[in-house]
Write a structure and sequence with these properties.
231 residues; mainly alpha; single chain; membrane
Length: 231
């Protein structure tokens, strides 16, 4: 999700007469291609790692892989790849003279999707609360770096080369985030009620205490951008 002070400054420059070069679409597509390639390659490497029978003998690893769909990072990667695939397709149609195939509704959806794109740059004091050490058997440092950090430069790159008007209000975008938070929390709690398992150790430690909803609220608020505002 990128709605930041930088966003506002860039848009002010555009309104003040800053003209984007026609080549900006190619720079934008370069960034889209890079992030899609990184995530695709990284996903393939992790998928092959999970096919290693010697690794899958570990009970904790098997439990983790069975909860893949519960991890916020997995949702995150899915959102990122969906957005950048859509963006790349739209831009490719534009440069090949088939811009008429991209309707106004699709363009509007693209802008909304980008404004509510969730990204995570994670840094925790105690990694065992979120990323237990056994995960290293499947996810190397490079894989974790790609999953949790690379979205930041990719999103800023897209922001710099994708001109768009500053929205009058972020209520709609934040409303989408609230809905996503509710859906994710519901999925996690439903899985716990069915299997007695949480994807993150910190959920297990705090469930049943006042800290559980507080942690969920903090986790959601951490996805809000610096400089976001509501009119």
């Amino acid at each position: 999700m990128v709605v930041s002070i930088l966003d506002c400054f860039l848009m002010m420059d555009f309104r003040g007469g800053f003209k984007i070069m026609s080549s900006s679409i190619y720079y934008r597509m370069l960034g889209q291609a890079v992030i899609l390639s990184l995530h695709t390659g990284n996903s393939l490497v992790m998928f092959l790692s999970m096919k290693d029978q010697s690794i899958m003998q570990d009970l904790e690893i098997r439990k983790m892989t069975s909860l893949q769909s519960m991890y916020l990072t997995v949702w995150n990667i899915a959102f990122q790849m969906s957005y950048f695939s859509l963006a790349f397709t739209c831009d490719l149609l534009t440069i090949t003279g088939r811009e008429h195939l991209v309707s106004k509704n699709i363009r509007r959806f693209r802008q909304t999707f980008f404004s509510t794109l969730i990204f995570t740059v994670a840094a925790v004091m105690n990694r065992e609360l979120l990323f237990p050490e056994f995960i290293d058997k499947i996810f190397s440092f490079k894989s974790n770096f790609i999953m949790h950090f690379c979205i930041l430069p990719a999103a800023l790159w897209e922001l710099a080369f994708l001109p768009r008007p500053v929205p009058k209000s972020h209520r709609y975008n934040i409303g989408i985030l609230v809905l996503l938070c509710i859906v994710y929390t519901s999925v996690v709690l439903h899985t716990y009620s069915q299997r007695g398992l949480f994807p993150y150790p910190i959920f297990t430690m705090t469930y049943g205490t006042i800290y559980f909803p507080i942690f969920l609220a903090v986790a959601w608020l951490s996805t809000l951008p610096n400089g976001s505002y509501i009119h």
